[in-house]
Every structure is written in structure tokens, then in C-alpha cells.
Amino acid sequence: MIKVIGIDPGLADTGIGIVQGRGLTVNSYAYGSISTAKTEIMACRLESIYNRIRQVLDEETPDLMVVEDVFSLEKFPKSGIVLGKVCGVILLAGTQSGVELAEVPVRQAKQILTGNGNASKAQLERAVRHTLGMAAPIRPFHASDALGLALIGLFRHHAR
Hints:
Family: Belongs to the RuvC family.
InterPro entries: RNaseH-like_sf, RNaseH_sf, X-over_junc_endoDNase_RuvC
Low-confidence stretches: none
Protein name: Crossover junction endodeoxyribonuclease RuvC
Structural class: alpha/beta
Strand content: 15-25%
Strand order of the largest sheet: 3-2-1-4-5
Keywords: Cytoplasm, DNA damage, DNA recombination, DNA repair, DNA-binding, Endonuclease, Hydrolase, Magnesium, Metal-binding, Nuclease
GO biological process, one term: DNA recombination
Shape: globular
């Protein structure tokens, strides 16, 4: 049995998904998100994300943490820089907790879970929901993205 935590980084909302299972079988899962207020300064928002991720890692003691890799859109380069800062504190939290880390590019995650590297968030959410056998939509989308990353970690661990 392995426990995998998936993290979908974001300054306003960071998704967290946790799956536990063996091979291609998921025995349990949980998800949620960390939200920060736009009224707070950047450093305080990053500290909140770091502290909450550390708390989850300490409580859940996962075997593997899968984080969505940083990407940047040409039209919004500042967003890529901000995302890089968020990923930095998440990777720091993971390293300090001693969990094995992996980063997965978003297009690769979409390709693995939906068969389409350009899938929409709604398509990815439906694929994750179907894999987990859930009836109700997973919200927010950051949480379904994080669950998808955790599923990839579980399935890849099986393939080792």
C-alpha cells in the first residue's frame, strides 16, 4: 500500500489530493485546497501555503508527493514567476518532510488522465472522477487536478 499526495500549485488556491492504494487500485482518497487572500502580501501568502503543506505532510506522512511542474504563458509571464515562487515553497516543504518528490508537467498529466494533452479542466475533472468512481463533481478544479497528480504517482509507482 502506498500513499501519494498530489499538489496543484496556485497563489490564490493550491489544490491537494491524496490517494492510497496498491497497483492500479485506489483504496481511499481525500482532497481539498489552500486559499490565500489577495489582501495579504506575497510573503505572507507563501508562508501560509508552506505551513499548511507542512501540516498536511506531517499528518498524512505520504510515500510520494507529485507536484505540477511550473509553466508560463507568453501572454502572462508574471504569472509564471508567481507560480515558480509557490512551487518553491511547496518543494521546500516536501524536501524538509523527507517525502520522495516528483514533478509532472500539466500537459503530460492531461495526456495521461484524459488522452488529450490539451484537455480542459472540466475534462480532467471528469476523468479523475470516473477513475475514482465518484458521482459528485470535484470542486474546486485545483483539487481535482491535485487528485489527478496523485493518481499518476500511484500508477507510476505500480509500473516501477
